[in-house]
Every structure is written in C-alpha cells, then in structure tokens.
Amino acid sequence: MSAINDRFSGSLSLAGLHPFLSITVLECTETEPAAAFQALLRFLDDAAQEPGQALACQPLTATTFFSDERIDGVGTPEELGFDSIHASTRQLVRPPSWATKQHELLDISHQLTVALRRNRFVAIYGDTPSKERLGRWVDEHPELFRPIPYSFLAGAFVGDQRSLWTRGVHTPRPSKQDSKAMTGLRLQDALDPLGDGDFSVTAAAIDYEPPDPKALVRGRITVSPQWSRISWRATSDFASFVTYVREILEVLDKVLADAPPAWQFGPLPEPEEDLSKVRFAVDVSTEEQPELDGVDEAALRCVEFLRSAQLEVEGKPDTATATLHVTDHGTTSSFLLTPVPAGDGFRFRVQHVAGTPMRAELHGLEDHLRSGNLLRVHYGSGHACNGRTLYRRKVSGMPFRNIELGDFTGFRTTVEKPNGGSSREIHQLIGTPGDTSLFGWVANRYRTGWLLCDDGTGEIADFLHLAADGGLTAIHVKSAASGRSVRRISVGGFEQLTSQAVKNVRLLERDVLADKLRKRVRPWTAAWQNGHRTAPEDFVRALEERMHVTSTHVVLIQPHLSATAVARARQDIAEAKQTSDAYRLQLLDDLLHATRKAITGRCEDMTVFASP
Q1: Contact status, residue 462 vs residue 452, Cβ threshold 8 Å
Q2: How far apart are CA 397 and CA 278, in angstroms?
Q3: Phi and psi at residue 67, in whole multiples of 5°?
Q4: DSSP category for residue 31
Q5: Banded model confidence at residue 288, pLDDT cuts 50, 70, 90
Q6: Are 120 and 94 in contact (CB under 8 A)?
Q7: How confident is residue 136, by pLDDT bands cut at 50, 70 and 90?
Q8: Average of pLDDT values for 486-496?
Q9: Which of 157, 359, 430, 574 has its CA 20 to 30 A from that of 397?
Q10: CA nearest 66: which of 53, 76, 74?
Q11: Which strand (E) or helix (H) includes residue 526?
Q12: H or E stretch including 39?
C-alpha cells in the first residue's frame, strides 16, 4: 500500500504540527530512564504495525531527536526542556462507518504518535497504541514505568470543578443510577454527601489556576486519573505543544515529590490503600467504555463478550478474592479475581479455576481482566475495584460546612419572639426598644433592604428579606433550648426548621410568593425598608419588581448549636470516640446535607446561623 497524498515527501515536518494537547503521562521506575524510553519506543513501533479494526495499516515515518539534535523550525529537545522527542505517523485504510468491510469505498486516515521524555517522565500523545494496549504494556513492565498514581493526579490541578464524570461504587440497583455526568460553575460546592458519596471520579474538567502567575497552562484542564491522562486544548504549533507538555510534567514532578495532595472532590470516594479492609465480593458489573478507539480490537471483543455473557460473583467475608462465573451459550468458566498492589494502584490477579475455557478468539480474556477497567467488583465492605483503582465509599458522612456564627450579644437566644398576647401585638413589638428576642435580632441584622415578618399560621418563613440587588432570603428561626454556655448538640432543634424550609421552598418563586403574600398580609404585618417601618404592601410591590434571575437563599437560625460543642464533637469523631455529641453531630450533618440538597434544587444555597 502506498500513500495517496502527493504532497507527502516521506519525512515528517514537526514544525507543521499543532496537536491537541491530550497526553498519557508515565513515570520511569528504571534507574536508567534513557534505556526505559528506548524500550517504550520499540513497543510503539510494534503497535504502529497492528491494524486493529482497520483493513490495513502502513507505518510512514518514525524519527527520534535526542537532546542536541535540531528539529527544523522548532529547536533542539534540550532547548525545549526535554531529553528526547520521538514522532511517528502511520496510514490506516478502513471502510466508512456506514459500509461493510467488503465495500469498494475506503477511508484513508493518518495517525500521529509523539513521545517526549523529560528526566524520569514520559508524555505520550496519539491514538496509537490505544490506552488499553498501552496500559497492558505498562502493567507487563513495572520495572520500566508506572502511571501517575490516582491520588496524586487527582489533586495535581486544583480549581473550580466544572465537569465531573463518575461511576458508582455502590452495588447496582434499579433505584439508583450507575454513573453520573455533572456540569456546573463549581461542583465541589454542589456535591451532595448523601447522594454523591457512592460515585467515584473517572474524569474531571477543572478551571485550573496555577500558583505561578507566569504559567501558560491554565484554565479548563481535564484529568482522567485512572488512565494517567491529561487534556487541555488545541495548540497553535509544535513548539507551543512541547512547552505546554513541559509545564504539565513540571507540575507532576512537584506533586510527586511530596505526600499525596489533599482530596479535592469532597464527598466522592477516595482511593483505598489498605487491602486488608476489602472483603466479601457481592456483585459485579461491566465498566463503561465510552470511547473504545477501535485500535485495540481484542479489548473491544472482550467488552462485547462480557456485556453479552451472564456474570456472577461469589465472595467470602474474610477476603477480597472474588470468584467470577462467566456463562456464555450454556457453558460456564470460573476465575479467581484477587486485587494485588501495583505501582499506581491495584490490578486483578486472574486465575482460571473451573469450567470450560472460553472459545479460542477470546483467549486474551484473562490478560484483559488483569489490565483492568473491564469489570467492577463490588464488596460488602463498601469498596469497589475495577482492576486499576480500589475505591472506598464514604460511609462516615461529611461535615456540614455552611455554618455562620451569629453575634447574639444583647439578645436572648432562648426567646424566639416578643411576648405579645396576639399575632398583632407580636408584629408591633418586633425590633422595638427592649425587644431582645431572636425576632428582634433578625430585624437588627437585616437593616438594609426590605424585610417582612411572615410569622403566623400558614407562614412561608418567619421573615423574608429583599436585598438591593433583588436577592431574596427566606429566614426560619428557632430558639435555643438552653442558654447555658455548655450545652449538648440537638438534632431535634433543627427538625422543625428543616421541615418547614423544605416544605415551603416551592413557594419562594417570585409570582407564587407575591400572590401568597397579597392574601396573607394584614395592615399590622411588620415590614421595614432600610430599618424603618413601612407598609407590608410596599414589600410585596418590591417583590413583584424583582427579576427572576436574582438569587434566592434560605437561612436557618438556631443558636442552640454552638461552635464550641461542634468543635468538641468533631474532635471526638476524629479520635473515633463514641460520645453522644459525636453521634448527634453526624446525624445533624446528614439532616442538614439532605435539607440543603432539597433547597438547592430551587434556590442558590442554604446557610445555618449558630452561636459562637
């Protein structure tokens, strides 16, 4: 087969390339990185000759530039910050996606592979080999390379999380999705410990803000921790591509020189390091393969086979080893799958133990199971393993952080509202001299903008506040059960607050709220504008002028909760002390997280005011 592009001279001009920056990064484990890199290049050369699902392939060029060898129009690898740069191309012939292999029309495409070595790191660009094929080769040669460990890559690029692709760690069930894809402005603030704590990160798009203001790599960067892969954006020329790759490798070098960075995905499951905690396999599911690139035909056959076969798993209470039963066309084969430590995580040790061997064309099934990411085994201990990473569910819950400390000096936290004989008298007394109730505290705190007291039977909230920018806040108030400086954490003190907040959140939409208030307000209903009493109808008119796009918040005021008690209980939890306050705080965290999830379905956010 010969190339059909008449412009191709037979040599590749790197200066004319502008690859999209998407690389797999490996760390050399060999004491001689140059020798390991040569072994990698031999593998890349072999992979370039494998057609995969194409009808035919032809390697076209393969060139390696060492440190002082000049790349025309680009410079030397040394000038660019690298020891070696390798580039190769190949030509593929395949039928169009809508035609059979026997069709006379054929598509011709070209693939580029670039491998760059900087000290002990190697970055690989291109579709040849496939990520599955490359992953198997790395697993077979742990003495040469390892992927960047999951925990390090997941924390290397920090910023606002804009997209998350996740896979469930929980045992599959009809009532819960197996995977989630999320987008937002800052997902780490939107994640729900109760609803999202079962979903592990497979990839994340992050608005990365580097600590170095001169850094070029910034903005939307996508990391795939379990494939040791990083993607950024299109580049304008090859020199820029190489410069950006160097910056990324420098970031990883700094991260790997220290302990694993702080986990930035909040309640999502973290990788498990202690295999002794993993036991009792209870279920198995096939991993999602959203983009099998078609190069690794053997991997594709295994995926299709596993999806069509009947899979069952047996486990024991004292071990992570699972017995996998694979049934296809009435014949069953059984394999032992045992997670074992690898350079960047865990791999399955696979052993065929019973039954009829799989048909000949699937003889590589065991190899693909070893390389991982085909199956996910779920364990009764709350773990899941996909043959590359071992995850643990966050069963302990996450602290609720949206707590502000209110200054209640001069007010009685055990008194909710003024002591009036009727609703009318209560409204008349709120905020007057001598009112030291929590209602008086609200009137004093929200002295700018519009404020309306809605206290009474059928109330939407105790207070509604409109800021100058149109932001609406629904305020729910509950007095403390005790005024003592040392008091216990109480979940019951929040149950009425949270119930009312969730029940009425649907009424906070502008038109619905305005219509409701028009029917509720009385001439004596307490209302203020910038701290001065006004007619309640004025508040309703201001509400009607509010834009739909302005934000809505919910505030829960419960001064019985004190920062001192919370800090003490958090310390007990950290030290695994089984105290009553530690238990109550965990219950309260769950209650507030569940309430916030319901609130943020319609509103901007929810905040709790507590005592210092």
Answers
A1: no
A2: 19
A3: -50, -45
A4: S
A5: low
A6: no
A7: confident
A8: 90
A9: 157
A10: 76
A11: none
A12: helix 33-48
